[in-house]
């Protein structure tokens, strides 16, 4: 999220929270997709991480200079936090640039009509970013986990909400700080037509999120060596903060609804309450208490709509519901993988035949089977199993459903190509059963001579 929402409208009932989500409903003709992707900035000469202020390490530029350079190039509005520029907002809701805690540079893309448009958006973003970063000797590495730096070597960005999270994370899990400072993702945000459509898409995407994690696994390195996982990022999420993350098992209960998600969200502990320019640390507190005006840290203060929207943005399940549905399971990767992720989910969820066929594949899975798959994928990748079935076999079938869904959408680019062209890298992964993580591990053991440093020049954006 590039900036915290400011909406002082008071909330007087749970029904208003449910209604806020329901306002995201759209007719299928107005469905859009918004793609978000993160990458690690690094100095090309010594592969060191980029701090907020480059001068702190004797450099001509750091994260601040990158943001200021992009602001000058794009004309986007700077987003400030206690006087620090910590992001940029595009015009008319047309995307944003933001920072993750360790300096991961994120583009939150605009809501666009098709994957061709999001691919062009990515190309333009990388062209602009390269023009701004090259004079400072900065490159960007798109992997799911930082391959070289320790947590202590990773800089922290000057966003006050991140200090609150940093203090709270060790109280609720062992890997929260690694999640904050050393992971990168690519995700796509998709629309729903109504409550029943939301439920169907949420269930299918939750069940298949571990498959996406396997197909896009790209984090086999940590601190200069193989870490034993195909997706260390996915493994980290298994012990970050289980009260706000995971597979949302209640989504498969009879009667799943907007209200059921709201009830869950109300019981997830809060991080902060923002009033004016002040972040009040209320980590661990109940939103229900704020809604009732009984929050001990802020006596008499009542919830506003901005409190609710900001709180929803601090929930981290594998699939997140706001006024759209967010697919959160994939590692960041090279450009072709960044485009494949939205294509994969659009093909499955925006075509009725593909969505129905995908539901038929997963509806018989038990909660225990879904969780077992989620738990084994970070290490096993496509070698995991769902019930008695190898995941690699399921991958081929699901990718084909997505391909057929995109073909039926028939959204063509200027060369007459439909969106299936963006699935080519994961079609190859599904057919071979070999993930990017496995291929990188082979490179480390072979051509790279046991070193991970070559991944930087080979994959740098």
From TrEMBL:
Keyword Manganese applies: no
Q: According to the UniProt entry, what is the EC number of this protein?
A: 6.3.2.2
Q: Which reaction does it catalyse?
A: L-cysteine + L-glutamate + ATP = gamma-L-glutamyl-L-cysteine + ADP + phosphate + H(+)
What the entry lists under SUPFAM superfamilies is as follows:
Glutamine synthetase/guanido kinase
Q: What are the protein's UniProt keywords?
A: ATP-binding, Disulfide bond, Glutathione biosynthesis, Ligase, Nucleotide-binding, Transit peptide
Q: Which InterPro entries match?
A: GCL_bact_plant, GCS2, Gln_synth/guanido_kin_cat_dom, Glut_cys_lig_pln_type
- From the UniProt record, give the pathway where this protein acts: Sulfur metabolism; glutathione biosynthesis; glutathione from L-cysteine and L-glutamate: step 1/2
Which top-level group of life is the source organism from? Answer: Bacteria
Q: What class of enzyme is it?
A: ligase
> Can you tell me which residues the record assigns to a coiled coil?
none
Identify a single GO molecular function assigned to this protein. Answer: glutamate-cysteine ligase activity
Describe its assembly.
Homodimer or monomer when oxidized or reduced, respectively.
Role according to the record? Catalyzes the synthesis of gamma-glutamylcysteine (gamma-GC).
Write out the similarity annotation.
Belongs to the carboxylate-amine ligase family. Glutamate--cysteine ligase type 2 subfamily.
The protein's name is Glutamate--cysteine ligase
Q: Which organism is it from?
A: Bosea eneae
């Amino acid at each position: 999220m590039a900036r915290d929402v400011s909406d002082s409208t008071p909330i007087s009932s749970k029904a208003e929270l449910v209604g806020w989500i329901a306002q995201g409903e759209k007719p299928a003709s107005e469905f859009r997709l918004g793609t978000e992707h993160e990458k690690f900035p690094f100095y090309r000469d010594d592969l060191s991480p980029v701090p907020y202020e480059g001068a702190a390490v004797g450099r001509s530029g750091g994260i601040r200079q990158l943001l200021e350079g992009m602001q000058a190039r794009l004309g986007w509005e700077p987003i400030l936090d206690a006087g620090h520029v910590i992001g940029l907002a595009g015009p008319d809701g047309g995307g944003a640039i933001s920072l993750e805690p360790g300096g991961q540079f994120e583009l939150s893309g605009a809501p666009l009509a098709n994957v061709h448009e999001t691919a062009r958006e990515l190309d333009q973003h990388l062209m602009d970013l390269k023009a701004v970063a090259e004079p400072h000797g900065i490159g960007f590495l798109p992997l799911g986990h930082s391959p070289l730096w320790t947590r202590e070597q990773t800089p922290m960005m000057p966003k006050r909400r991140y200090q609150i999270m940093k203090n709270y994370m060790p109280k609720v899990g062992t890997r929260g700080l690694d999640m904050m400072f050393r992971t990168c993702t690519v995700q796509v945000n998709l629309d729903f037509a109504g409550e029943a459509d939301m439920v169907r898409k949420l269930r299918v995407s939750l069940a298949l999120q571990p498959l996406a994690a396997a197909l896009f696994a790209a984090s086999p390195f940590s601190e200069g060596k193989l870490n034993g996982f195909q997706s260390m990022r996915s493994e980290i999420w298994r012990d970050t903060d289980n009260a706000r993350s995971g597979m949302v098992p209640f989504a498969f209960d009879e009667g799943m609804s907007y209200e059921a998600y709201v009830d869950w969200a109300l019981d997830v502990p809060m991080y902060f309450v923002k009033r004016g320019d002040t972040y009040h640390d209320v980590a661990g507190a109940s939103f229900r208490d704020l809604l009732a005006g009984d929050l001990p840290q802020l006596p008499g203060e009542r919830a506003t709509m901005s409190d609710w929207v900001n709180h929803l943005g601090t929930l981290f399940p594998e699939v997140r519901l706001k006024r759209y549905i967010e697919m959160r399971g994939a590692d960041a990767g090279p450009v072709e993988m960044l485009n494949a992720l939205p294509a994969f989910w659009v093909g499955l969820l925006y075509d009725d035949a593909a969505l129905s066929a995908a539901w038929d594949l997963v509806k018989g899975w038990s909660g225990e089977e879904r969780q077992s798959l989620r738990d084994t994928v970070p290490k096993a990748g496509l070698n995991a199993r769902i019930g008695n079935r190898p995941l690699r076999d399921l991958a081929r079938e699901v990718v084909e459903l997505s391909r057929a869904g995109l073909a039926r959408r028939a959204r063509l680019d200027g060369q007459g190509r439909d969106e299936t062209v963006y699935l080519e890298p994961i079609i190859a992964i599904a057919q071979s059963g070999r993930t990017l993580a496995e291929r990188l591990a082979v490179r480390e053991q072979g051509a790279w001579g046991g070193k991970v440093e070559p991944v930087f020049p080979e994959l740098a954006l």
